[in-house]
Amino acid sequence: MSHRPDHQVDNLVKRINRIEGQIGGIKKMIVDEKPFDEVIIQLNSAKSAIQKISQILLEAHADHMFMDAVESGQTEKELESLRRAIHQYSKML
Predict the structure, then answer these.
(1) Exposure check for the chain: N or C terminus, fewer CB within 10 A?
(2) CA distance 67 to 13
(3) CA torsion angle for 45, 48, 50, 56 (degrees, to 10)?
């Protein structure tokens, strides 16, 4: 992520911290025997938050790959890296 500004890293860390809080809340809901539908709603919310981080990282990887390909001229190597990232991202959907 060297082509991304530092504030992007800070944003990702904040998002992860929020997810950690969500997971702790979900754990408490289970211990407190909250209704399953409410727990599932919170699980879906956490899943969406994780998916958003993956999207941000995939976009950053695409930007990084493009910059590296332009600088190095090794487009095939960079495209293969992007293909692997897209493949992993698609598994989340």
Answers:
(1) C
(2) 24
(3) -140
Give me the sign of the Cα torsion angle 31, 40, 22, 87.
Answer: positive
Q: What is the 3-state secondary structure (H, E, C) of 22-50?
A: HHHHHHHHHHCCCCHHHHHHHHHHHHHHH
- Residue 4 DSSP one-character state: S
Find tokens 């919170």 and name the residue. Answer: 42
Q: How many CB atoms lie within 10 A of CB 31?
A: 8
Q: What is the pLDDT of residues 26-72, one digit of tens each?
A: 999 999 999 999 999 999 999 999 999 999 999 999 998 888 888 88
Of 41, 39, 85, 33, nearest in space to 64 by CA: 85
pTM of this prediction exceeds 0.85: no
Q: How far apart are CA 62 and CA 69, in angstroms?
A: 10
